[in-house]
Amino acid sequence: MKIPEALEWEEQLKLFEQRGMDVQDAAQNQTKLEHISYYRMKEFARPLAKINKVDGEVRIMYQGITFKQVLTRYYQDKNLRINLLHAIEKIEVSLKTKVSYILGRNYGAFGYLDFSNWTNRTKFKKFEVEKRQYYFKNSLLKSIERSRNSELKNNYNFNEDGFPSVWIAIDMLMFGELVSIIELMSKNNRKELADFYECSVKELSSWIKCLNFIRNVCAHNSNILDIQLQTTPVKRNEWDEFIYFISDGEESRQTNRLSIVLFIIIELVTKINPKYKWKNITSNIRTIVNSNPQNAHLLGFKNETSVNEMVKYFKKH
């Protein structure tokens, strides 16, 4: 098995050129490569490349592709990630506030620590609930040790075992931990939470799992433009006029790309702040599609026109 070699920056750029890419201003592009990395650029070039298998070996060719095109895709992705993360964090903060409100009002400041109070005992067995309660408490105590939250200095906010009130505890959770807590909640509690966002329990459950994945992608600087969801979230019928459907014989299935994520974000954010400024996200999407109309499909839209119609949908909401 051939072991990858350590290449100088100039050699890395040369490798792109050998595979057909027009590197144009080599000196300037080498400087970019020194700060972005070869493999990150390769990732953004891949959807534009021709990929074949020769004697069992994958061959990637970049004929007709310029280094500038790939660099543009990288920056388009970066800008979109930043703006999506802003919107998702708004959803995350709102969910934490609503969950702690429900648990605090129904079970008191420290009732959340006994999971049997508020979990779905029909769906989850007693042993499973107790196990999750143990790991939750253990993780929470570690989070308290790391936190610099000034409220943690006030003994009034703690019980005799050293656990904080529900309002502080839920606020300290990571998004993934919050999603797990919501999944554990009883039917009535989840219904109350979903009602805040004017959606069904099934929709909310599906959407927040999707957003947790997308948030992690954005936070870890991964490629969002070419994202393909492994589990397609629940959609609403009114989205059908915008999103791309993949034909599979006599049947068709909805896209698993970014467009459906955008509609989820719209639905939730507008319930939190009807006056939310969508300009940055819509500008990002338009720029991406205008640079190459084929990008509409890559993002999961029917065509360039449906992207423009989606912008109107944003404004209407």
Automatic annotation (TrEMBL):
InterPro entries: Abi_system_AbiD/AbiF, Abi_system_AbiD/AbiF-like. It comes from the Bacteria. This is Uncharacterized protein. It comes from Streptococcus canis.
